[in-house]
Amino acid sequence: MLRRYLATSASATASATATASASASASASKNSIKSNFKFHPEYKFKCGLEIHTQLKTKYKLFSLSRTSFNDTPNSHISYFDVGLPGTQPKLNPEALYLALKAAVALNCEVQQMSRFDRKHYFYPDQPMGYQITQNFHPLAKNGYLTFNEFDGVEIATSKDGANDTIRIEKIQLEQDTGKKYGDIIDYNRAGIPLIEVVTKPDFDSIEKVLAFVKKYQLLVRHFDICSGDLETGAIRVDVNVNVNDSPRVEIKNISTTGDIVNAIKYEYNRQVETLTKGGSLEQQTRNWDGIRTNLARSKENAIDYRYFPDSELPQIILSPDIAHDIKTSLPESPDSLLARLTSSPHNLQLAHAKNLITEPELLHYYESFFAIHRKPDADKWVFQELLTAFAKLGKTFDVEIVKPNVFAHLVSMDLNLVSKRLILKHMVQNEVSLDKAIEQLGFKEDQKPTTELAEDICKEIILTNQQIVDRIQSGHAKAVEVLVGNAMKKTRGKFAAQTFRSLFKEQLGIS
Asked: pTM value?
C-alpha cells in the first residue's frame, strides 16, 4: 500500500547508509545527463516515446485468466491465451474503462469508433501467431501533456509555449505477450491488457524525456490506471531517436530511467559519429544491452506484420459524452493537487506532495488530519513522526491503528515531543487506543510529569550515583550526560532531556 514510501522511511544502520551513499554516487556518476555528454549544435536531437502500460485489471484483456503474472509460471492461462483452436476473445470492459481514463487524463480525443487488428508475427512469446492491437483505428488520438514548474525542466522557451507541451499521437489498447526465460516461456503475462501511448518526436532534451516519464508514472498511479513501475515491467518504454531529420532509430529493451538516459546518449553519439565520418543513417530497430545499442533489424529486413481487422471482435462504439463523463468522475489532477499542496496553507515540500498524490489513502489521511490540526507542521507530523513510527517497527501504515482525529488529539496534548513519540510508538506496536496507551505508560492527568517530579528524580539520581557526581564536580562536566540518561530511562521519556540537563546543572552548581 505505502511500500514505496515506507521502504525509504525506515532508519538504516550506519554501514547500510554508507553503502547506499556509495552506490548512489556511483549510479549518479553513470547516469548523470550532464557527465561527459553534450548535444552538438549542428546535429539536432529529436526524440519520441512509445510507452507500453499494463492496466490494473483483475482479468486479462480477452479472457477470464487473472493478471497475476508473477505467480507460478503458466498458472494463470486459458485456452485462448495460448492460442488453442476453437476459443474466441471477449473484451474486458474494465480494461476499456482504464484505457479511457488514461486517454482523458492525457487530453486525448476519444474516438467514437475504434476497432482491433491482428499484428502477425511468429515468436515463442506470442502463441497465437499474432497480437491483437489497434493499428488502423486506435482508441484515442491527438492528446498532450504539458510541463510546469513541478517537473524540474526548463519551460516556456517559446512565446506560444509550444516547447512546454509533448503531443500524444495516439493511444491504442492491446494485449501483452508472454515472457521468455532462456528456453522456457511463461504465458501468465500473455493477454494482460496494455495501452501503448505514442508521442510525437517533440523531445529536444534528455531532461524532458525523463520528466515526461516521471510525470506519466505519477499520472497513471494517481488515477489508479497502472502501478507505474518500470522495474517490474508494468511500464516499458521504447525510445525513438534521430539526428537532423535522419531516419528514426527505435531502441527497445529499456527497463529503468538510468537506461533511458544512457541509451539515448549512446545512440545520439553513435549517429553523430556515423554522420561525421561521412556515413548515412537508416531506419533501424536496436536493442539496449546496458552498455550499447545493438542492431536488431533494419528497414530492409523489417517485419511485415500484415495488419488486418480482427473479425472475431466487434467495433467499439462509444457515446459522444463518454470523455466528458469520465473527466467529471476523475479525482483532482496531479498538477492541480501539487499546486494546492505546495501553496498556502499547506506549503508542503514537493517530494511530500508527490508522495501523497501516489497514495490516495495517505492523501485522505493527511487532509483529514490537517482539517483538525491546521498548522504548518502538519506534514512533518505525518511524514516524520507517524509514518516513521510504522516504518521503524516494520509495519505497513494502517489508518485503523492511528486514525487522523486521534493523531491530531495526540499532537495537541500538553506533552513534550519525546512523550508524544513514546505514546505513538506504543499505539502502533501494541495496536491499542490512545487512551489505553496513555494509561499504560502513565500519562494520565494525575500521573502527568511535573517540574516538582523532575526535581525529585534528579535529587534521587544524584544521591545514588555519588561516583559520577564526584567526577562531574572534579571538572568533567560532560559526565552529567550519564545522569541525564539515567533520568530519561527512569521516566521512559516523559521529560525532555534538556529539562533534566538544566536541573542537574542547577542542583550540582555547574554551568
From this structure: 0.81
